[in-house]
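Tutorial, part two.
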Amino acid sequence: MNHLGASAQTEIIDGTEVRVRRPAASRKDREKFISGKNKQNAVKAMVLTDASGILPFCSPAQPASCADITHARQLGVVKHLADSPAAVEIPADADYQGLGAQTGGRVVTPAHRKFKRNPLDWYEEIYERQRKAHSSRWIRVEDGIAHLKN
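Running the prediction step on this input gives:
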């Protein structure tokens, strides 16, 4: 993280799931592999990419029964970001909302939708602009994940 702050690079964070064969019936933690998102047996890895889609970090695969934000906390990424003196900005998807406050604003997630029913026209316009700006920066991590899986 200090290297990224010194070189003014941006990292992008995301979690990905890879389907696996069903663990043996004798395995005690067999239920941990069932993903709540896809309802399939999977393992989850957390990936950091740079702005060009190159992967400097991929975490070890763990059973997919936990959320992305929990996975980041278990790996120590949140603690490392909070303690890091470097000014690093890490775009992330909505799965990581709440990490911005825990990391001193280093993790940036898309804006919350304030009005779900009967939103004001000006609010919808601003919300869409913010969402598109965030997603155009964040999409590079999907390219890195696709490269990793291929």
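Residues 22 and 124 are 44 Å apart (CA to CA). In part three we will examine how such features are distributed along the chain.
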